[in-house]
Structure formats: structure tokens, C-alpha cells
Amino acid sequence: MNTAPTTTSPPSSKNIDVWLIEDNRHFSEAIECILDTEDGIQLKESFRSAEAALKALPKKTPPQVIILDLGLPGMGGIEALPEIIKHAPKSQVLVLTTDDGRSKVLAAIANGASGYLLKSDDLDAIVSGIRDIVDGRAAINSRVSRMILDIFRKIPKPPPEANLTSRESEILCMLADGKIKKEVADLLGISYYTVDTHVKRIYKKLQVNNLSGAIARMSQQ
């Protein structure tokens, strides 16, 4: 695993409860070890399969963040995602996997993942990803992010039924690149309220409820 220094996000003021769904014991232990040293982040539960996590969800208080491997024995991560979100709609799911293939990335996003990181990412990047998705940012591996943007660039225009304006398309691309609404507002020189209004219109036109759905909707054209 690459452990080169990276710039991490400032610690969130929130106490973040985390569940880990990972079948690789050594990798799971590495994640558990690093989270044990982080202020404000607590690993509450660790599971070796999606089935075990889904069985526990109705019986326990869902965490703010669920770290999910895709290559699990039995029920795979993509298959488990909708079920996890069904039982824990307020939890943010951070995919952490070895697979950066387009089909897996888009399937994870379309099924509600809030972030997509690779196991080759720095441990600091994983910690930052946890904080980012709790604070409303997208947590996406840089290579995966470039792939998503490349998909957007190859889309000649929004689907006819969407009828996005050039400003709406611009804002959607910036959000897909991991920026939050305040950063978009600052970069475009407009108010946060204006950005928020554009985002609501984008979601309405694309008939989705969140950024993941908007990205998936556009990427499938």
C-alpha cells in the first residue's frame, strides 16, 4: 500500500461512527489500526461479508459512514449497496476497492455510493474520504475522477429531455469533480443560494435526487 504523505482534510468537528465491510483480514486490520488513531472517528463495527452487515443493520444504530469493499464473498458490494441504503438511508457509503473499471465505478455511483476510493490510495486519503463525505464533499480517487470527467466530456450534449443550460452543465461537472457548492459559488463568482438553486433544477430535470444519480444519469447517455 502506498503510504506517501498526502494533504488531509481538516478534522471535522463531528464524531464519526464507521462500519467496515471488508473480507481481507490484513487490509481490514490496517484500516482498523489507522482509524483507532484518528480523533473524532470511531470504528464501531467490522464485518467480513455484506450479509453479516445487513443482518446487523436493523438491530443497531446505523453509522454515519459505511466503508464497503466490492469484491466480497457471497453477496458482492454492488449488489449489497441498494440493500445497505434501504436499511441505512442516512449513512454515507464509501466504496474502497481494487477495481477502478468503468462499469464498476458507474454501477457503484448509480446505486448510491457517496465516494469511490482505491485500496492503493494513501491511508491518509482514506481518512480524508471519510471526513469529506460526512461534510458533503465527494470522495473520489483521482484516477476515477478523471475517468468520470472524461465520460462527461464525451457526452456531446445533455439528454434532450434534460435540457440543461450551459451553466447547469458547468456546475454539474464541477460537482462531479469533487467540489462542494460553496467552492463552486466562489469559483464562478455567484452566491451559494444561486448554486443551490441551479442544483435543484438539475436534479429536477434529470429526475434524480442526488449527485450520484445525476452523474449516473449523464454517464449512461
Unreliably modeled segments: 1-13
Work out the number of β strands.
6
Report the portion of residues in β strands: 5-15%
Average residue pLDDT: 83
How many structural domains does the protein architecture include? 2
Class of the largest domain in CATH? Alpha Beta
Which CATH architecture of the largest domain? 3-Layer(aba) Sandwich
Assign a percent range to the helix content.
40-55%
Quaternary structure classification: single chain
* Strand order in the largest sheet: 2-1-3-4-5-6
Question: Which labels suit this protein?
Answer:
globular; disordered N terminus; 2 domains; alpha/beta; six-stranded parallel sheet; Arc Repressor Mutant, subunit A; 221 residues; Rossmann fold
Kindly describe this structure.
The structure is a single chain. The protein is an alpha/beta fold and 221 residues long. It folds into 2 domains: 130 residues, Rossmann fold (3-Layer(aba) Sandwich), CATH 3.40.50.2300; 65 residues, Orthogonal Bundle (Arc Repressor Mutant, subunit A). The chain is built from 10 helices and 6 strands; from the N terminus they run βαβαβαβαβαβααααα. The protein has a 6-stranded parallel beta sheet, with helices on both faces. It is globular. The N terminus is likely disordered.
